[in-house]
Amino acid sequence: MQEIKASMAGTVLNVMVGEGDAVTAGKELVMLESMKMEIPIEAVEEGTVAEVKVNVGDFVNEGDVLVTVK
Amino acid sequence: MKKILIANRGEIAERIIRTCSKLGLETVAVYSSADKDLPYVKQATVAYEIGDPPAAKSYLNQDKILRVASEENVDAIHPGYGFLSENAAFVRKINEQGITFIGPSADVVEAMGDKITARKTMQEAGVPVVPGSGEIVDVAEAIAFANEINYPIMLKAAAGGGGIGMQRCENDQELEKAFVSSQNRAKAYFGNGAMFVEKFIDDARHIEVQIVGDNHGNIVHMNERDCSIQRRNQKVLEEAPSPFLSKSTRIQIGEAALLAAKHVQYTNAGTVEFVMDKDENFYFLEMNTRLQVEHPITEETIGVDLVEWQINVAEGKALPLKQEDIQPTGHSIELRLYAEDPTSFMPSPGKIETLHFPKMEGVRIDSGYESGSTVSPFYDPMIAKIIVSGSSREEAIKRCTDFFSSFSLTGIKHNGPLFAQLLKEENFQQGKYSTSYLSKILVKK
């Protein structure tokens, strides 16, 4: 199980995957916005999205789990 | 005028308060819960918390801000830059409440806010504009037009500006990939998905001209600022005068800005932005109907207080100077201190442990933070503007270098080290740079 975490504090601008989606390494899962900059959060390795833990508009802190991939 | 509400935050709120205090005017600050400890909140005569940290819930909440304005019975609202500063609907609501908006008319704000309308208006005025399209509705039309004017092109959002909502494309594949995502982003950000295509100008410089008009038909320009040192299409360092312009181009670009301003009967302070190629051909890019972040370098070289001019114009006074009385002297450089990694440019929000600006001759600091302040992830990463002036460009650069040798900021990452490096670069010292320069010197490193 991979836990995909926020690389910095920010607001969830977009969620590009849903539960059950197959993903490959480097696939953009979530777009965060911090200080007017868009920061893509990518899958580390291949797998299937087990859970999306955030919604568009949520504020997340650095280290918060955004998505889990199995 | 006795009392002014400032619909903004951070350094620009402090900057406006400074002039208001000088003029004996009371100030009303508004702040989100994230900003309650920032210096400007304490500096204002009174301050009101207006909502949660996200801008949509605080600094963009028009009704909330207008309610404070009405309760406090203010005479005028200064919008600063960003947030609601170029929102025509907000300007109209302010006027309907019988309050003065410190800026141009709602009609001008609206016309210049739509970049497609602005291009058309400037063409009618006889101002050269970048070769480009009108509104483009789908990707096929965008590709056809791009092939007509040849790649590279810039894909832009009609409602964009300030470096947001644009993407450079080299070929059909890139344009195809960028079009839908850019259009969706424009819809989400600006509530307007209208797109257009412009020719991308290689080795371009970004040169802009400060203008100010009054309600009596007088309009002056205050010469140019060179804003070509950029990252992600956003300015990092600006200087006045431009080290690049010939004397004849300087006169021509000033006249073009005046022509643009007169055509729309511009009032209050504004900026006409141009892109300039290596042969000094220049083209209208956009008009910013507000005070610009980098206005201090114009103030330092011309010897005026632009916020004071704005307030006086809003009160109906005539401009205090004629065009022939405006004579720039010396050289001024603004360095934008950002809370970000100096090489990757990734944001670095957090608590500032210590912030020390050395006091030096020729240095002016417009800051929004102090030791112990928190830079939150909700807004722009700018911490402060360091404005350094001298009798010549060489002297100004020398003073910048001295400044960064004793400047310190701890607790968060910042781009101070980038400036220290940039100031040593030979091409920068010789004034040889374009908008792609900053990313190139980082690659070289």
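Residues 131-199 of chain B form a domain with the Dna Ligase; domain 1 fold (CATH 3.30.1490.20).
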